[in-house]
Write a structure and sequence with these properties.
It comes from Spumella elongata. There is one protein chain. The chain has helices at residues 6-30, 33-46, 52-57, 66-73, 76-84, 103-109, 113-121, 136-143, 146-154, 168-174, 178-189, 193-201, 210-216, 220-228, 243-249, 253-259, 263-268, 279-285, 289-295, 315-360, 366-385, 389-402, 407-414. By secondary structure, it is mainly α. It has three domains: 1-125, Ankyrin repeat-containing domain (Serine Threonine Protein Phosphatase 5, Tetratricopeptide repeat); 237-358, Serine Threonine Protein Phosphatase 5, Tetratricopeptide repeat (Alpha Horseshoe); 362-414, Serine Threonine Protein Phosphatase 5, Tetratricopeptide repeat (Alpha Horseshoe). α18 runs antiparallel to α19 (289-295) and α21 packs antiparallel against α22.
């Protein structure tokens, strides 16, 4: 057999790339195995020396083989066709792409339980992690799929892996998947009380525990499940906010009910934010009558004008607290508006200072003065677009100071 020339090798490689591109389209879009097969059969018929298995396992894009790509596409017939072309699929199923994703992780991301099951039966390692430290179970948790999580757990998936974004519990909490949280807590409890409690309270890289992430995501039942499982609710974040403050403000009734049944939760009722608001104040500002009632027995009532500190829940007391909430909200809105306007004014003043500094330092010759004037004109145009009209006029004035014969500057300043 004659040796192929470089030109022939190049032609085959180029055609293989084109076919690879078409097969990717089938994987991600059409899912028609007859089309996929035709592309491959035509190519192999034309190039009988080419190894078909190498095409499916050796051809890569960012480390992804067609096995990775078909798993990402989530179409089982396409995946089945491709895996069927591998003589020994077990040697490929745990291969990682450039970002550390395995075909199993890809199948989990694409929410294809059927492909996941097929890979697991072939011996896929459920605990392999990508470069961020996330395994397949993290992605199943983020999707809130109890079915896919259970498939992975039954195959030996570990629930104590903490990726850059946290454990599977964090991933479920951050996406407000209460049923996924409940499932994970049940499985974690089988690891023993001490380890289970540690996993419930472990923090991700940004320092947030799962219960706080669930609260921010407004996952009412999820927070409740985590609190009942022993989550630490005494964590205080920026603004002197506790988990209870966040839940009270967002109307998470089940969460608030679980929190106030714990001593640390009752203590949180008296914690004030940097703006001087207790959880009951935030609930009142949100006009949430039910949560106000839950918080009254554990809150300091001396803020009311009636100066009562009664913990008896009456409709009159609730009305008084809600009325106070209306006043607090109006005050907060006024302060927020003032801060916004002050920040805008400060930004405008800074622009003016830059203009004044540029003028003071200007010792340019006439030709340079024209260039400097153009810069002031451009600054004026930018300020005008931002609605900072006085600052824009000042910039145009500086342009005129440097070049008073330019009609455009006069026109801009007069606009």
């Amino acid at each position: 057999m004659s040796k192929m020339t470089d030109a022939e090798n190049y032609r085959i490689a180029k055609e293989a790339q084109d076919v690879f591109r078409e097969v990717i389209k089938c994987c991600m879009e059409g899912g028609d195995t007859s089309v996929l097969g035709k592309h491959l059969d035509d190519f192999l018929a034309k190039n009988p020396t080419y190894d078909a298995e190498e095409f499916f396992t050796g051809f890569q894009s960012e480390g992804k083989t067609l096995l990775h790509i078909s798993a990402s596409g989530g179409r089982f017939p396409v995946f089945e066709y491709i895996i069927g072309k591998c003589k020994d699929p077990k040697q490929y199923i745990n291969k990682k792409d450039d970002n550390g994703f395995t075909p199993l992780i890809n199948a989990t991301v694409s929410e294809s339980t059927q492909i996941m099951d097929a890979l697991i039966k072939l011996g896929a390692d459920v605990n392999l992690r990508n470069k961020d430290g996330a395994a397949a179970v993290h992605f199943a948790a983020a999707d809130g799929s109890v079915e896919r999580m259970d498939l992975l757990v039954q195959a030996g998936a570990q629930l104590d892996f903490v990726s850059k974004s946290g454990s599977p519990l964090h991933w479920a909490a951050g996406k407000a998947h209460s049923e996924a949280i409940k499932y994970l807590l049940e499985k974690i409890q089988t690891l023993g009380a001490e380890k289970a409690l540690a996993l419930v309270n472990v923090a991700c890289n940004n320092g947030m525990p799962a219960v706080l992430m669930a609260a921010v995501a407004c996952c009412d039942l999820g927070v409740s499940y985590l609190v009942d499982a022993g989550a630490d609710i005494g964590v205080i974040v920026t603004g002197n906010l506790t988990t209870l403050h966040i839940c009270a403000e967002h109307g998470l009734v089940h969460a608030v009910s679980s929190i106030v049944h714990r001593p640390s939760g009752q203590a949180s009722c008296k914690v004030l934010t940097t703006e001087g608001n207790a959880p009951i104040h935030l609930a009142a500002m949100a006009k949430d009558r039910a949560i106000v009632k839950l918080l009254i027995p554990h809150s300091d009532m001396t803020f009311l004008k009636s100066n009562t500190n009664s913990s008896e829940v009456t409709e009159e007391l609730v009305d008084a607290i809600l009325a106070d909430g209306v006043e607090r909200l109006a005050s907060w809105e006024a302060q927020h508006k003032a801060k916004t306007e002050s920040a805008a004014q400060e930004a405008e003043n800074n622009e003016l200072k830059k203009i004044e500094a540029a003028t003071a330092n200007s010792t340019a010759a006439p030709a340079d003065s024209e260039a400097a004037a153009e810069k002031f004109k451009d600054t004026g145009n930018a300020l005008f677009k931002q609605g900072k009209f006085q600052a824009a006029i000042d910039a145009y004035t500086e342009a005129l100071y440097l070049n008073k014969y330019n009609a455009t500057y006069w026109s801009n300043r007069s606009a």
